[in-house]
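CPNE7 protein
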Amino acid sequence: PRAPAGMGDVPEPCPQAPLAVLSKVELRVSCKHLLDRDTLNKSDPCVLLLMQSQGQWMEVDRSEVIKSNLNPVFAKIFTVDYYFEEVQKLRFEVYDSHGQAGVGTHDDDFLGGMECTVGQIVAQKRVTKPLFLKYGKFAGKSTITIISEEISGNNGYVELAFRAKKLDDKDLFSKSDPFLEIYRIDDDRSEQLVYRTEVVKNNLSPIWEPFKVSLNSLCSCEEKRKLRCVVWDYDSRGKHDFIGEFFTTFEEMQKAMGENKVQWDCMNPKYKIKKRNYKNSGVVVLLDLKIHRVYSFLDYIMGGCQIHFTVAIDFTASNGDPRNSCSLHYINPYQPNEYLKALVAVGEICQDYDSDKKFSALGFGARIPPKYEVSHDFAINFNPDNDECEGIQGVVESYQSCLPKIQLYGPTNVAPIISKVARVAANEERTKEASQYFILLILTDGVVTDMADTREAIVRASYLPMSIIIVGVGNADFTDMQILDGDDGVLRSPKGEPVLRDIVQFVPFREFKNVSGAATRSC
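Tokens:
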């Protein structure tokens, strides 16, 4: 809303100011009557989700591959940010996968695509549309169905570990290859696939890998909501044999916390009718259940939480000799350099939420006294026992006095500092008091050298009460840094584990340095 006349200065508009996220939305995908591209078996479909960003289609995420199935229901749940005031274009592309070669993008592997907007899916809750091949040609009778669900404020998740005992043997020459599916039963009695475990080969008493699902996904955060769990014998041609099922609730599952275990008879209704002495088709046991509550930034602040602010400054040689006026670290007596401008812009906001006004200040990528060995997490006040400075001004003074004492070097490794702050945040989380939230501001002039370690450190940190702001200083190409931000797709560790929360914001400072201080801070 515009400020009424005479109400003082209106702040300058902020370039590319991020929109306020209205909510997050979960999307479930299924297909029917897909084209059969394989000569011997049926197609092995996989769905790619793409989102339009500045006119370009960017892959956000992809589903698992379902073997030999023309009517797949994908277990993968896509999560997207929903901005009410923006037209967010989505594209779903279905491909026939080829084993180790992965998902091809050739025309002969393409099973069809469909475009829509996030708003259309949210408004209709369930959208079924035909799939199209290239040039607007129908992909036979193929359709794709997207079901949307808004994620409520209760964004905790649960970790479950299941096993089974003495399952029915469905195979002639070997034992069954069981896998477990969990379905949530909605108010309209429709079933939504929550999770599908891996297949355990040739085993009537399988132990499945523990897995995590959000409480929203599992039971819509309603403990008494009915869940249907089904055990199947896997068939490579897609014709899985039904072993048995049981019904439960999240409320009942919670009896498995601690040393306790919960078990259910896995029942085949047909056998129950036909066989007089039928007891069950095996037993499924919930070995362990752990509930993890995930709190938002606002939850911490509203609860009286203090913000602990840490700044990490890049002292690698690519910044240039600080004595040279071309250096990004040049101390100009008349105006602050870009490092100082970015530090003050973010620090002035954070200090309002920090009662002691003390900020940790670290450096990385320099040779430091006395031995002049390279360090990637040193205190810029050279006090390893207490790296805190008095207010923003204290950080500025420590930065200015530190520069003449160090040798700028390299490489640009930021994982050590992320891990260092994460360790402090982890210790805070163990107190269960939620009294501190940690913000790490990383100021750097270039591309991170230890990208794999940094991605791993960010995924670990996403489980903790901390956020990371990375500000790119100077005119380097920061394309690779956008990966860490996660705005164009979910950031994953090198092993493929996604972040629990999007905790990183990357900002190229050059886009904001010419606007006023107030606008810079808000951006």
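The domain at 23-151 is CATH 2.60.40.150 (Immunoglobulin-like).
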